[in-house]
Amino acid sequence: MSETRQRILDVARALFNEHGLNRVGVRDVARAANMSPGNLAYHFATKDELVAALLEELYELNRRTVFTEPLAEFSLIVLYKTALGAMRNMLAFRFVLLSYVDAVQASPRLAQLEAELAKRRRQRHELMLAALIKNGFVSRAARGRSEIIYEQSSMISSGWLAAAALRGWSDERAVRHFAKLGCALLAPFCTDKGKRQMRRIERGDCDVPPTTGRKG
Description:
Layout: H1 3-19, H2 26-32, H3 37-43, H4 47-65, H5 76-90, H6 94-98, H7 100-106, H8 108-134, H9 146-167, H10 171-184, H11 192-203
């Protein structure tokens, strides 16, 4: 990615996070990036293209920094630490959580991208659940509830930041609370081995501090 293109994305992300998607236009991004609208349009013709590029950036950031553990070693503790990392990454893309739905509903381009990202997220969910079953942390009964578990975890991942804001929680308190809540969806299906790890997660034994630097 060119330095100019990355600078535009960094500026757009900051503006969207501060003001929300609806209140920021391409001209605002161009002005903040100290370039003409025409120069910005060379890289991103529309705001939808900017948002789409940022969504892909978040997905790639998670793939590169969070979803790296081999499935052969996947456990509930790894799942929890993965959730912590993914949610911390999302803090730099707050607009995805706080005003993204309206943008998707108004844009066929973003709706198409969201459908593709949802497909990737579902595939990742199935792989992780299968690994937890194979590695002996979760019983096979979880497979029959996979759809419900996925939908519940999706609701947590899409709404946790707004819920935390209503409660006046700090980012880190929210990350740890809702990451634990997501893992707890598997509690009814835990084997004895899984229950031991779940207790460690609930006690906070597996909490890890955030690393400095968004791109890790």
